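Retro notes (design track)

What went well: tokenization of the new backbones is finally stable.
What didn't: we kept losing track of which sequence belonged to which structure.
Fix going forward: every design gets posted as structure first, then sequence, in one message. First example under the new rule, 119 residues:
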């Protein structure tokens, strides 16, 4: 019987690495194929168009409107979803027994949406 294999996922919105505990449970080693990076350009680079304008119904005034979504945030969510799919696959392959997640709240929430209840 093998000892419990614990993976530690250290992630933010655009980078992630998985480390595995060794026999003494104090040493962590990077899992070879489990380092990820996303291309996350700034919103100003994604949203090249100027904001839309809204006209007042009674006056000639115009107001700039914000874009309805935050593409940078959506890219971070897609990155977390990709991580979740990979982790789900590795769990099915029985590559680890436990998973520890170290991530900021937004990334943690995005991961929670994609990970199976077993994790």
């Amino acid at each position: 019987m093998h000892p419990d294999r614990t993976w530690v996922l250290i992630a933010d919105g655009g980078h992630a690495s998985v480390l595995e505990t060794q026999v003494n449970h104090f040493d962590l080693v990077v899992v070879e194929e489990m380092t990820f990076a996303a291309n996350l350009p700034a919103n100003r680079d994604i949203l090249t168009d100027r904001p839309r304008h809204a006209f007042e119904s009674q006056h000639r005034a115009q107001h700039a409107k914000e874009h309805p979504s935050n593409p940078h945030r959506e890219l971070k969510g897609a990155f977390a979803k990709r991580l979740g799919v990979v982790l789900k696959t590795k769990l099915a392959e029985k590559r680890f027994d436990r998973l520890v997640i170290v991530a900021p709240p937004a990334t943690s929430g995005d991961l929670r949406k994609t990970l199976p209840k077993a994790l």
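Added context from the reviewer: The chain has one domain: 6-114.
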